Structures are given as C-alpha cells and as structure tokens.
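lol forgot to send this yesterday, sorry. struct tokens for the thing we talked abt
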C-alpha cells in the first residue's frame, strides 16, 4: 500500500515543516489525475511529459501511442520513472511564492502486455478522462484503439509529498 512506501531518506526534505504525511499524499494523488512523468534514456538524458494517470490497486497506469516515442524508448532502456503531481493554490505576492501541494512518486515502469490488465488499465484511464460517458461507449473506444496504444504500469517504490499553504 502507498501509505507504507518509504520516503527517500537519502535526501531528507530540506523544509520538513512542509512535508506531507503518507495519508495526505495519498489523498492528493486520488484527486489529481494529471502529472508530469519523468524518464531518462540510457545515457541519463531526462525527458518529462504531461500524462493522465489512473491509480488502481497501488499501481499507476499511463498510456501513449505505440509509435515508439521517446518515453517508450527511455523506459525500454531505463525502467525508472518519476511522476510529479501538483495542485496549485494561488500566489502569495509578498514573498513572491506559490501556495501548492505536490507529490512525487518514484518507481519502476513496465509495459503492460497482459491483455486483461491492459484493458482494465484503459478502462481506468477512460474513467479518469470521461467518467460521465457510458460503459458501452468506453468499451467501443477501447476496442477500437487498444492495439494503437501502449500502457505502462509504474510500480511505486518511494513517495514524497510537500505543501505550502496560506497561514490560517
């Protein structure tokens, strides 16, 4: 379970007063469907791309085209990935700073090849993007495009949450 994931103690949070509890981080993840996914190629060159994320039973799922894009190539060479979720809360004009809440999840990615898992992940992603759409519409869409997309599962290994909120 995510609440049990270790924080990255190799680099303690400099502003420990802003650190979120694992429960708070999980709550933010459940209400924030978009993130930036960072990968690196085999030489360590970074690449970040916005993604829609579905969170199912402790696993994060993202999808993309099967055309052999940079993210897919990077994950094939180097399976480590990071997801950064951010909720902006407005500007604090006096110190020129931002109110925010953010969670970073680090883990190992794998391409989903099992057809049942891939279909379930695509339904979860469809629910994120179009919860109001009928099941049959989602099913028809998923069946029409399932071969044209890749689905990646990110198995989380570390989680870190941080926030800067207005003073009460």
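and heres what i got for the seq, position by position
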């Amino acid at each position: 379970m995510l609440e049990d994931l270790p924080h990255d103690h190799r680099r303690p949070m400099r502003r420990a007063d802003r650190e979120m509890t694992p429960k708070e981080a999980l709550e933010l993840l459940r209400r924030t469907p978009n993130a930036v996914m960072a990968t690196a190629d085999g030489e360590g060159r970074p690449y970040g791309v916005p993604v829609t994320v579905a969170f199912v039973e402790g696993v994060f799922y993202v999808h993309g085209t099967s055309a052999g894009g940079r993210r897919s190539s990077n994950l094939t060479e180097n399976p480590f990935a990071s997801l950064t979720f951010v909720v902006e809360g407005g500007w604090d004009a006096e110190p020129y700073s931002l109110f925010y809440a953010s969670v970073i999840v680090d883990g190992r990615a794998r391409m989903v090849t099992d057809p049942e898992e891939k279909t379930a992940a695509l339904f979860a992603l469809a629910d994120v993007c179009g919860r109001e759409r009928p099941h049959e519409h989602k099913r028809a869409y998923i069946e029409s495009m399932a071969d044209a997309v890749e689905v990646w599962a990110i198995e989380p290994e570390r989680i870190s949450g941080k926030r800067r909120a207005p003073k009460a």
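The helical segments are 22-31, 70-77, 115-130, 135-145. anyway ping me if u want another try
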